[in-house]
Known about the structure:
The protein is α/β, with parallel strands linked by helices.
Amino acid sequence: MKPSTAKYWLNKLGWKAMDQAIPVKKCIILGAPHTSIWDFVISYLYYASVGGNAKVMIKKSFFVWPLKPILIKLGGIPVDRSAKGGASMVRQMISEFEKSESFHLAIAPEGTRKPVKRWKTGFHAIAKATGVPVYLGYFDWGTKTVGAKEELLLTDDPVADMKRARQWYKDKGVVGKHPQMFTTGDDLL
């Protein structure tokens, strides 16, 4: 989609892009709060409107006619979520980073639109294995603002890094489309 078309639709839906595309060739962009399928639409329109092109992991079972060509056009990468612990998805994304000259991967660390106690740390394993930076992206339904700019500097402690990421979202005060579905509290870590 052309940036001008994406910007038109983003604005038409009442949203404002707060940041430009991430200025590196390869990165991971976390997206939260993920409480609705509309989060994908808003984040896609945002990133396309600023000239970015991000890929997203989608269950391979969705890649059937007539959805398959649409999902691919929108940056979808079919993944097999049946492996325990997400190990095969992590390996697949590491491979995608290694074979691509330019690759921005958008990941919802919650892993689902339902409220969760633990966010997924697969992004951490991918970033550490490939050496790519991780940025904190958000779609705030309270202010209808969307962006991604701040880098999450990773350590060798995924739990501590996840705690810092969750705290960032909590401090930012972002609101999901369905606020009751988004949790960042320390009691959930």
